[in-house]
Design brief:
By secondary structure, the chain is mainly β. Helix content is 6%, strand content 33%. The strands form 12 sheets. A 5-stranded mixed β-sheet has the order 1-36-37-38-39, with no helix packed on it. Strands 2-42-41-40 form a 4-stranded antiparallel β-sheet, with no helix packed on it. β36 and β37 form a beta hairpin. The chain is globular.
Length: 623
């Protein structure tokens, strides 16, 4: 087993045994890796629930609960665990027994229809200039689904009155925000702290119109809430007659504080599926961009999709790794492609070519002629032919084959069409916001992957309303989604390529954990993750990510089934599962406390995914 310099750096950074996992993603570089080794392959079967906490977040019951997703990963800072709920309550728990020390409720208006109802976590900052015991010396920051940045006293949960206005910054200022966009401009991921700055992006429901809010990234003073800098990913849009919006960073940012760098994953410019109003490559949408954390100055950018027409956002947090002796940034994508970039220049450290891709047949749409393609293995399959059609019966297989034959389908990056176009993998990935974990001992990127095909159909404006009126006659078992794409000639409908019984038309597994070997550019192994339905083949779509430990274990939930799964990092074999009270569309974390290692998972389900709902935070430890 090769032990790298990076391994020793990771271990030394987290070796204060009882004070680890203080940042969402384990560290600023998003490695989701722990050096704690009390739990091993040999004793993991002895894990038992040590404590459970119920957030109560789904009370009172409202229609919004149907969208709620408990996606949080707690952090341990000093002597408390901090987490957030789908409705942005912040909770501080005792790490020994899970008892609540304090709770804070920002009173999000639950009568309003938000695009997303989720909060993946919070961030912590310690004021080096404040005296010990001063209020808000330790601050907890969260962004909310109603577009606020809130600073709380880490010891009491009280708002920090010197931050913004009474503890709150209004994030709608400066983003071309009108009342029609309320509920479509949000924050769903944890802020990122570098130095004395809180850096934050936004989540935008970007298929509604061309002129969605600006997807700016901003740095705020952690003491005062004053705006220190703003970075616009698509400044060229200001020159358009109607300004394209979005290209926002809705996932988690990564940082290299020692180099004063923050790494921004961006989504597509609005709207996703028609780009005639945003000609060109659309830089720096669908990219990873490095900025000076202290000033917001642009350092470099690398675009993973030119002129996106498939909702192929960079959904993953960039992962800081060591690659063949180079400090690097690994980028996992919805397409399943993996890019590894030099951390200081953004240049690929492996071979990437601009590969020719199909052209659009839509008037006014000038799709990119090429797309950047790594010349090593993708994490997921990227081609689905009619001969590949799958079904658990001959009838289902034939129906799937007929569906595939009826749609435009020329491989990855086939543009959307009026006929209907297959995208495989679909817009949920590949790798989604669950991101990758990096095991520096084995030099592996570990990720939960989805393998389900989507269908995107452009609807001429005059046909849009009629199609919406008949939606119940055309929807599949997995449902579908209309988007008006106001300001373009086309609305859009997207759905999943599934048989009448709801099973996808491509062969299982429909979700898998994979180990991508950074030494060889190949998959070391892939293993089905959970199950989508009772009696279905193994392998479920997932929302949430894996956590890796030095002991060679991968912990993940995230699938449709209500279980925590543990895999052997070396072989991919699933070696243990634990029942959960609800599905866990989240990423686990681990910490040491009073000589004992705990594994913590938020199990509350996902309304849109229709998985089992709940409000539990569970900690496991050896019996």
């Amino acid at each position: 087993m090769r032990i790298t310099l990076a391994f020793f750096l990771v271990v030394s950074a987290a070796s204060a045994a009882d004070q680890n996992w203080g940042v969402y993603g384990a560290d600023a570089g998003g490695t989701r890796y722990s050096p704690l080794k009390q739990i091993t392959r040999e004793n993991v079967v002895k894990l038992r629930v040590a404590w459970t906490y119920h957030t109560g977040a789904l009370e009172p019951k409202t229609d919004l609960n149907e969208k709620a997703a408990f996606e949080a990963t707690p952090i341990l800072v000093e002597d408390l665990l901090y987490l957030s709920t789908p409705f942005n309550q912040v909770i501080a728990l005792d790490p020994a027994n899970g008892a609540a020390r304090w709770t804070y409720d920002p009173k999000v208006d639950r009568s309003f229809d938000y695009s997303e109802v989720s909060s993946r976590g919070v961030a912590a900052w310690k004021d080096s200039k404040a005296i010990d015991g001063a209020p808000c010396k330790l601050r907890i920051f969260e962004g909310t689904i109603d577009a606020r940045l809130i600073g709380l006293d880490g010891k009491t949960g009280a708002p920090c009155r010197d931050f913004g206005t009474g503890g709150t910054v209004d994030l709608t200022r400066g983003v071309v925000y009108g009342p029609e966009f309320r509920g479509n401009y949000q924050v769903t991921s944890a802020p990122t702290i570098v130095g004395d700055l809180v850096i934050i992006g936004s989540s935008i429901g970007d298929n509604g119109a061309v002129d969605m809010p600006r997807g700016v990234v901003r740095g705020y003073d952690a003491r005062t809430g004053a705006l220190r800098w703003t970075w616009d990913p698509i400044p060229w849009a200001e020159k358009q007659q109607v300004r394209t919006g979005a290209a926002n960073a809705w996932s988690t940012l990564a940082a290299d504080p020692a180099q004063d760098l923050v790494f921004i994953p961006t989504g597509s410019a609005s709207p996703d599926y028609y780009g005639g109003t945003r000609p060109g490559d659309n830089k720096w949408a669908n990219s990873v961009v490095a900025l000076k954390a202290s000033s917001g100055a642009f350092v470099w950018g690398f675009q993973v999709v030119h002129h996106d027409l498939w909702d192929y956002d960079v959904a993953s947090q960039p992962t800081l790794v060591d690659f063949r002796g180079h400090p690097a940034v690994a980028v996992t994508t919805k397409m399943g492609n993996v890019f590894v970039l030099d951390r200081t220049t953004g240049k690929p450290l492996h071979e990437v070519m601009e590969r020719a891709v199909p052209s659009s047949d839509i008037p006014g749409e000038d799709a990119s002629a090429t797309q950047p393609t790594p010349l090593w293995r993708a994490m997921v399959p990227q081609k689905l032919n009619a001969s590949d059609a799958w079904g658990d019966t001959a009838e289902a297989r034939q129906l799937c084959q007929q569906k595939i034959e009826s749609l435009r389908n020329e491989g990855l990056f086939t543009p959307p069409s009026v006929r209907g176009t297959i995208s495989f993998p679909g817009n949920i990935g590949g790798v989604n916001w669950g991101s990758a974990a990096w095991d520096p001992v084995r030099n592996l990127l570990l990720a939960n992957t989805n393998r389900v095909a989507a269908i995107a159909k452009l609807l001429p404006r005059e046909e849009m309303q009629a199609a919406m009126d008949h939606r119940n006659e055309t929807e599949t078992a997995w449902g579908g989604e209309f988007a008006r794409q106001r300001g373009t000639p086309f609305g859009m409908h997207r759905e999943w390529l599934v048989a009448p019984n709801g099973q996808p038309c491509n062969a299982p597994p429909w979700g898998a954990v994979v180990a991508f070997d950074l030494s060889t550019g190949k998959l070391r192994w892939e293993s089905p993750l959970g199950y989508q339905g009772d009696g279905w083949p193994a392998g479920s779509i997932s929302f949430g990510g894996p956590m890796a430990t030095v002991g060679g274990l991968i912990f993940t939930a995230a699938a449709h089934d209500p279980h925590l799964h543990v895999f052997d990092t070396d072989t991919g074999k699933e070696i243990w599962t634990a029942d959960l009270p609800a599905s866990a569309q989240s990423t686990p974390m681990t910490y040491g406390w009073n000589g004992k290692q705990y594994i913590v998972i938020c199990a509350g389900g996902h309304g849109k995914m229709k998985s089992k709902m709940g409000d539990s935070v569970l900690a496991f430890a050896l019996e």
